[in-house]
Prior knowledge:
alpha/beta; Rossmann fold; eight-stranded mixed sheet; 9 helices
Amino acid sequence: MxxxxxxxxxxGNLFFPRRDTTPTPExxxxxxxxxxxxxxxxxxxxxxxxxxxxxxxxxxxxxxVSDYDNLAEHFNAMGAELIVADFRGYxxxxxxxxxxxxxxxxHKIFExxxxxxxxxxxxxxxxxxxxxxxxxxxxxxxxxxTACVLESGYADPIPLVERRGLNIDKTTPxxxxxxxxxxxxxxxxxxxxxxxxxxxxxxxxxxxxxxYDNAGSKMKHLEILDGVGHNDMMxxxxxxxFTTLKRFFDSWS
Length: 253
């Protein structure tokens, strides 16, 4: 199937990879996942013996694994053992990124972490911005995911294409099945938290509301945080970003 989502024009304008030259933190578990022969993806696990669950985190565009090193203790304080995965071409990972690769690689990352005992009994998947796509891919298709968090995620793939400066009138059913978050979220059955900034002008809060309305989860929450946009969610007034996450984590863990 020939799709605009597989085109260099789309993916070249979607992803902004950067390499990682920072020192490896002490006590981090450096994991390389082979997603195809000779193609390795970097995953960093900040091990915590006291955490109640594993949090597999797919970061946003332009970010890399090490950007979250100083946040591990904050997530740990909420009961989470933080595991952050890169996309192809990002950080210390091989290859070049495409949206389809990000979705396919998510399954291989999950499978290796599970089969090698890197996960705790309960696993929450979290995706920020572009990372909402691989997060939803896993949460919609795997029954062994305990909970799901979408932060600043997109819904309809047509605006996603248009934000890349390309024109598209409609998507095919085949494309929707792979790339449409607002359709894929219908298959999510686990507890779901959707967080978005009220002042997000990159991805409208209306996309978060669409994902929430369509979500198949019986236990689902939508939080539109005041005073923040797309890239400053953690700066929400009165610490509401972290209190919202903790309340959600506590509700099932």
